[in-house]
Write a structure and sequence with these properties.
This protein is of the alpha/beta class and 389 residues long. The protein is built from twelve helices and 14 strands.
Length: 389
């Protein structure tokens, strides 16, 4: 009896049709990758690549974390009610205006998903926070990136001009990550007057604690007059809870209520909630730590200017070197010297303010680079808006 291979072709059983595979949304196939700051995992290497505080958690925060760990067999409060109440008290706001999420990025993504239909536009400065293009695309929106001014500031006039009838959200990041430039209160007020009332203005103030400019934004004073304004803050920076992921938004009540309903159930874990409440209760100690970081920032910035670097007026816990195509080389030199920094290919390098020893390593490196580029760093050439050495 003939085997299957000997059967006439006409007698062969038909091939099984190829089964369709699971399909992702096309927008997700082309998402840009978020590149985190390099880890200072090697012994003796300082991490200055992620804008973290150099201080360990405050004792009261560690105690709260330890106590909360004993109850992790229980679910946390679904909407982080205690954290919401403390944030509202801290800012003098109604708790109904506050929405807490798993880091400020998650809160921003929730806002965009609530606002954007496919094809709706989100306007923001560029370069700015690296997560913006990702969360806009995930939400189904279209990014409209408006170039910063040559000194790394938001071009608010150009951003206002970029608003169309398809624009649903405008993001203002101040101080801007990674360039460090801050919008002033007067600039923000003038900008809000230009934005249509049906376009949300998401004010990302992750680094607000570190601002020392003469006309610093008083964002909460603007909420009652500008109902399209949403203020976003985080516990990752000044409060030193980067590893626990707690962020929040303050918005008009109806919007906050809708966002809370649409948020991930139990989205902030119990340990993070306990740590955030404890951190808000340590405002004096937090302020003292922030003042130390700001003083160290001013020391580093003054030294960089003496070396000849033109670095603008950084207002976060970091500064920006617009090194252009030399950014990768600088980052490699920094790692060899004992610090990790955050290069942005073709644009520049962001360097966090860390321990004084780490900052001194950076200053030694920048002095050498200033010497390589000429008599000082101010003699380097700008090509296409980037500094070339």
């Amino acid at each position: 009896m003939p085997g299957p291979s000997e059967l006439d072709e006409a007698e062969q059983p038909p091939a099984a049709p190829e089964r369709p595979s699971v399909r992702l949304r096309p927008a997700l196939e082309t998402l840009p990758a978020y590149v985190p700051g390099a880890s200072g995992a090697s012994p003796g290497v300082f991490k200055l690549s992620s804008n973290e505080t150099p201080f360990p958690p405050l004792p009261a925060v560690l105690s709260a974390i330890s106590d909360a760990a004993e109850d992790v067999n229980r679910y946390p409060l679904m909407y982080a009610d205690r954290v919401v109440a403390e944030i509202a008290r801290h800012h003098g706001q109604d708790p109904e205006r506050v929405v807490v999420g798993n880091g400020s990025v998650a809160v921003a993504e929730l806002l965009l998903r609530a606002m954007c239909e496919p094809g709706d536009e989100v306007v923001y400065a560029w370069r700015s926070f690296e997560a913006y293009p990702i969360i806009v695309q995930v939400a189904g929106g279209t990014s409209v990136q408006v170039p910063n001014t040559p000194d790394g500031r938001h071009d608010l006039d150009a951003m206002a001009a970029a608003i169309t009838d398809r624009t649903r959200v405008v993001i203002v990041c101040t101080p801007n990550n990674p360039t460090g430039a801050a919008v002033t209160h007067a600039e923000l007020v003038a900008f809000l007057e230009k934005v249509p009332t049906d376009v949300m203005v998401l004010l990302d103030e992750a680094y607000a604690h570190f601002v020392r400019s003469a006309d610093a934004i008083d964002s909460f004073s603007l909420l009652s007059e500008h109902k399209n304004l949403v203020i976003m803050r985080t516990f990752a920076k000044a409060y030193g809870l980067a590893g626990l992921r707690v962020g929040y938004a303050v918005a008009r009540r109806r919007l906050a209520r809708t966002l809370r309903t649409a948020s991930t159930p139990f989205g902030v874990n119990a340990i993070a909630q306990a740590a955030a409440v404890a951190a808000l209760g340590q405002e004096r100690a937090v302020r003292e730590r922030v003042d130390e970081i700001v003083a160290e920032r001013e020391r580093v910035v003054a030294a960089l200017r003496r070396q000849g670097w033109d670095i603008g007026d950084p207002q976060g816990n970091f500064f920006w070197l617009p090194l252009g195509d030399a950014s990768g080389s600088f980052a490699a030199d920094a790692l060899e010297a004992g610090v990790t920094v955050r290069p942005f290919a073709g644009d520049g390098v962001r360097i966090s303010i860390g321990e004084s020893e780490a900052n001194d390593i950076v200053l030694t490196l920048t002095q050498r680079w200033a010497s390589i580029s000429g008599t000082d760093a101010g003699s380097t050439q700008r090509v296409g808006g980037s500094l070339q050495v």
